[in-house]
Amino acid sequence: MLNLIAAVARDGGLGWQGDLLFSITEDLRRFKALTMGKTVVMGRGTLDSLPGGRPLRGRRNLVLTHDKAFHREGAETFHSLESLLAALPAKDEAWVIGGAAVYEALLPYCGALYLTEVDAAPPADRFFPTLGGDWRLTEATAWQVSAGLPYRFCRYER
Q1: Nearest to 18 by CA among 53, 66, 60
Q2: pLDDT tens digit string along 110-134?
Q3: CA Rg, the chain, in Å?
Q4: Which residues contact 13 (CB under 8 A, 6 or more apart)?
Q5: In whole angstroms, what is the distance from residue 104 CA to residue 98 CA?
Q6: Residues 9-23: pLDDT tens digits?
Q7: Concatenated DSSP letters for 37-95?
Q8: pTM for the whole thing?
Q9: Which residues pair with 127 in a beta bridge?
Q10: pLDDT per residue as tens, the chain (158 positions)
Q11: Structure-derived torsion over alpha carbons of residues 65, 67, 71, 74, reported in degrees to the nearest 10
């Protein structure tokens, strides 16, 4: 099953100038708990934004990029959506972790979205794709505050 995980501002913002908009400790903890030991799917820019530009430890890292010369130790590189989809595990969860173009490309293949909705709208240059009417909110925590940012964890399903 392909899932998607993201922290999203109230206006759909995801990032600004190559960085995430938010660093919420509880969100990072949740991300690690959900993805550890699983396959994660990302674009090259997302990989570059990780600490040291290194793949995430304890996870199988798949990178979708148009750059045919791209290679990074510890990551599997794919140059087409079809080849990436064929490489996904058949029986285990895989997680789409960004960026915006990868979310857009893989949203139609996802069964669940795990969003950290943040009630703030800082400047952003990358945005989450608009969800169609086939998605419904199935779980939501109460609003919490971390470092002055109101947020909640949500799960959407088709």
Answers
A1: 53
A2: 999 999 999 999 999 999 999 989 9
A3: 15
A4: 21, 121, 122, 123, 124, 126, 127, 128
A5: 9
A6: 999 999 999 899 999
A7: TSEEEEEHHHHHHSGGGPPPTTSEEEEE-S-TT---TTEEEESSHHHHHHHS-SSS-EE
A8: 0.95
A9: 13
A10: 999 999 999 999 999 998 999 999 999 999 999 999 999 999 999 999 999 999 999 999 999 999 999 999 999 999 999 999 999 988 889 999 999 999 999 999 999 999 999 999 999 999 999 998 999 999 999 999 998 999 999 999 99
A11: -10
Residue 42's nearest CA partner among 84, 93, 86 is 84
Distances (CA, A) of 77 to 40, 56, 61, 67, 111: 12, 14, 9, 10, 23
Exposure pattern of 48-72 as b/e (b: 16+ CB <10 Å)?
A: ebeeeeebbeebbbbbbbeeeeeeb
| Token pair recorded at residue 95 | 């997680």
Sign of CA dihedral 86, 92, 98, 104: positive
